[in-house]
Amino acid sequence: MWIRFNFALDFINQNIMRKFSILSILLLAVNFAFSQIGGLSGSKLASYCVDIVDQKKIEFEPSFYYVHSAEYWNNNGKHEHIYPNSDSVINVSGMMFRFTYGLLSNLEVGISVPVNLSKSYFGARYVILEKKNFGVAAIAGFQMPMGDGIFSKHLHTEENTVQAGIGGVVSVSSGENFSVDFNAQYDRFLKEPVSTKTNTYAVSADAGYYVFNHTFQLIGSLYYEYNQMEGKYQDLLLFSPGFTLETGKNFIVVMSVPFDIYGHLTNHGVGFSFALTLTFE
Fold first, then answer.
1. Domains in the chain, please, with CATH?
2. Residue 277 in contact with residue 57, Cβ under 8 Å?
3. Torsion angles phi and psi, residue 184, rounded to 5
4. In this predicted model, what pLDDT tens digit does every residue of 137-171 receive, in sequence order?
């Protein structure tokens, strides 16, 4: 669910880059990457869980996102207006689609794409260990630019360069209603872009509690991303409250309100995300 909010913040940061040289590099914030590992199912918001789509079933998730940003954090972590006129703001909205397939009893594969098909996010998750109250899984994937504009074949930027990532998932539960998912990811551009951004590290933790006979899950999510560059860095800490509503066996409603808490050289945004998760035999 998180990657759609990342895509929106991609767009915002691209506009900021054109306006301010201090933001000459793009941060995939809240990715969710934020992450380049997309196309995977999840039971909460920013973090993947160990559970995967059942074998020979497919999960389809259309989602809508909205992001508002009027300020950014400078190199000292202080707020500044994006535009000299404080009345000017950036609002971005859009849609994402996710398709996930249960290939094996312990392996799922999938893809996420924005509605304009500018990028595709491929991912796979392999369950290493799954017990009643504890599980471990490995994830991997890559982001493939598909093109939505004019690009130079010899100029590598974040918009036209492939980025690959690997990561790990740990899920812990207590009783029937409470669970926590922890994720750690590492992403890298296969060719260094002109922004000098190279490595991205991300960690996240989602806690969820079910009420109303296991149909309504209250969720709190924390996400942190660190981007390594030459002589400087970007980072972002984000919190997102939200919920899932399981109205049927194969139908889930997901809503969240992500907002940035602290960062360096990135925008300060708040957003809204809504998704419908459908499972088919």
1. 2-280 (2.40.160.40)
2. no
3. -135, 135
4. 999 999 988 876 676 777 777 777 888 999 999 99
